[in-house]
Amino acid sequence: MNLIERYKSPTPKFFRTLRNIGIALATAGGAIIAAPVALPGIVISIATYVSLAGTVATAVSQAVVADETI
């Protein structure tokens, strides 16, 4: 199974939920980073890590496929 087939295959329910949480984290982190107000450096740093974690969780969760032998 190549990468394109893997991403097009159905994803189990748990990983769909995890993917949606990852999307929310990445969006929230990106919104804080792009905020038009001046925020302390620690807040920007935390938002960067949250955004990165959300992006990784989303990508990994999307790559999981349901096992068809069960």
UniProtKB/TrEMBL annotation:
Keywords: Membrane, Transmembrane, Transmembrane helix. The chain crosses the membrane at residues 21-47. This is Uncharacterized protein. It comes from Aestuariibaculum marinum.
